[in-house]
């Protein structure tokens, strides 16, 4: 999974519920860590973006919409 695919799915209204979107986003971060390692430049940047995503997720109250 990658952000380009997520963007395409958003444009095409492929997500029926927010949980499908969040699963894809979390898969991007999981794959980043898995394939790049946690302590590489890419891995560390992925962690920083993941941390910001999770912060905004909580602030925006997306968990309210989880089924």
Oligomer class:
single chain
Distance between the termini: 22 Å
Tell me the strand percentage band.
under 5%
Order of helices and strands: HHH
How are the secondary structure elements laid out?
Elements: H1 3-11, H2 18-36, H3 41-60
Helix pairs in contact: 2-3
Keywords, separated by commas or semicolons:
67 residues, 0% strand, mainly alpha
Descriptive account of the structure:
This protein has 67 residues and is mainly α. It has a single domain (3-65), classed as Bromodomain-like (Histone Acetyltransferase, Chain A). The chain has three helices and no strands.
Short description:
The protein has helices at residues 3-11, 18-36, 41-60. The protein is mainly α and 67 residues long.
């Amino acid at each position: 999974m990658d952000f380009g695919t997520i963007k395409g799915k958003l444009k095409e209204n492929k997500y029926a519920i927010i949980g499908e979107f969040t699963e894809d986003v979390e898969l991007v971060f999981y794959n980043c860590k898995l394939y790049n390692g946690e302590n590489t430049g890419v891995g560390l940047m992925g962690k920083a973006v993941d941390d910001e995503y999770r912060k905004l997720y909580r602030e925006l109250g997306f968990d309210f919409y989880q089924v």
